[in-house]
Amino acid sequence: MDLTFDESYWSQRYATGRTDWDAGAITPPLRDYFAQLGSPDDRRILIPGAGKGYEAEYLYDRGFTKIFVADVAPEALQALQARVPSFPKEHLLLQDFFRLPAAPPYDLLVEQTFFCALPPALRPAYAEQCARLLRAGGTLMGVLFDADFGPRSEPPFGGSREEYRAYFAPYFEFVHFETAYNSIKPRQGRELFICLKKKIGSEQQ
Ligand SMILES: C[S@@+](CC[C@H](N)C(=O)[O-])C[C@H]1O[C@@H](n2cnc3c(N)ncnc32)[C@H](O)[C@@H]1O
């Protein structure tokens, strides 16, 4: 993990309330995707860099049973636990995404403002780790900023769909990779909705 943005950096941002990424609720692109998943089941869902975990809360309230959130900032996980005391403690993973074990594999990974929080040099490793954590045919879905934020010394870091495509193409089939139509207002036109399926055999790459 890049030491510039380690646990203490993120903890500090929560402690000082510099959490401008936090929408305060599940956002429509993720909510609408989850709504069409059908009846709740025991598929293994991972939300890395989950922050306060509004997506986890939404899925848990709908009856999904195996939702895991991973974050390096204890404050983030504590916020979810405080809002949803019955959320299983063993599903709150205070861990570096890049060190999460691949077994047992996940069926679904959910992305929102985690990719843009990572130093851009880690983007190829993010795509590789997502593929490692998913079963063959598993899904990585969510939103990525499709916007140039200019040179920056701290997150969020922008980028373009052309750049991102190159990271994911070795491991994933592209089901959706287009501008989201239902972003929250400040992100309208600047978010890419992604739904990628892990290729069979891509773990050998
Ligand atoms: C910009 S915030 C986004 C939080 C949440 N996804 C949201 O949309 O509200 C990025 C989050 O990723 C976490 N994070 C950063 N690097 C991480 C890493 N290597 N592994 C796990 N979590 C990490 C931070 O603590 C922070 O909660």
UniProtKB/TrEMBL annotation:
PROSITE patterns: SAM_MT_TPMT (PS51585). One of its GO terms (biological process) is methylation. The keyword Lipoprotein does not apply. CDD domains: AdoMet_MTases. InterPro entries: SAM-dependent_MTases_sf, TPMT. One of its GO terms (molecular function) is methyltransferase activity. It comes from the Bacteria. Keywords: Methyltransferase, Phosphoprotein, S-adenosyl-L-methionine, Transferase. The keyword Calcium does not apply. PANTHER family: PTHR32183, THIOL METHYLTRANSFERASE 2-RELATED. This is SAM-dependent methyltransferase. It comes from Hymenobacter cavernae.
